[in-house]
Amino acid sequence: MISPPVWLEVLAVTPVVLACVGFLYFMCFDSDKLQSESYQLRKRALEVIEEKGGTIQLLNAEDLQLITNPDLPTSQSGDLV
């Protein structure tokens, strides 16, 4: 049986190794990049609220629920249905 050349084996393994190295890098140094986009948006919204008001406890429960669950249906006045 003929074995493939070494350069072909290296070429086949390189994408997997690079993906693993990239994942480990982000896991150690910037773990927020591994989260979903909706998680990042909710986290950023809560950070902005915290910066502006100093504390999240000043918000209505409905407002906080809308920030953390933006897909919930609301009425025209902004209240949850």
Structural write-up:
The protein has 81 residues and is mostly helical. The protein folds into two domains: 1-32; 35-81, no CATH class. 60% of the residues lie in helices and 0% in strands. The protein has three helices and no strands.
Question: What labels describe this entry?
Answer:
2 domains, mainly alpha, 81 residues, 3 helices
SSE map:
Blueprint: H1 6-29, H2 37-53, H3 61-68
Structure, briefly:
The protein has 81 residues and is mostly helical.
Radius of gyration: 23 Å
Shape verdict: elongated
Distance between the termini: 69 Å
Number of domains: 2
Beta-strand proportion: under 5%
Approximately how much helix is present in the residues?
55-70%
SS-based class: mainly alpha
Number of helices: 3
- Give start-end ranges of low-pLDDT stretches: none
Q: Kindly state the number of beta strands.
A: 0
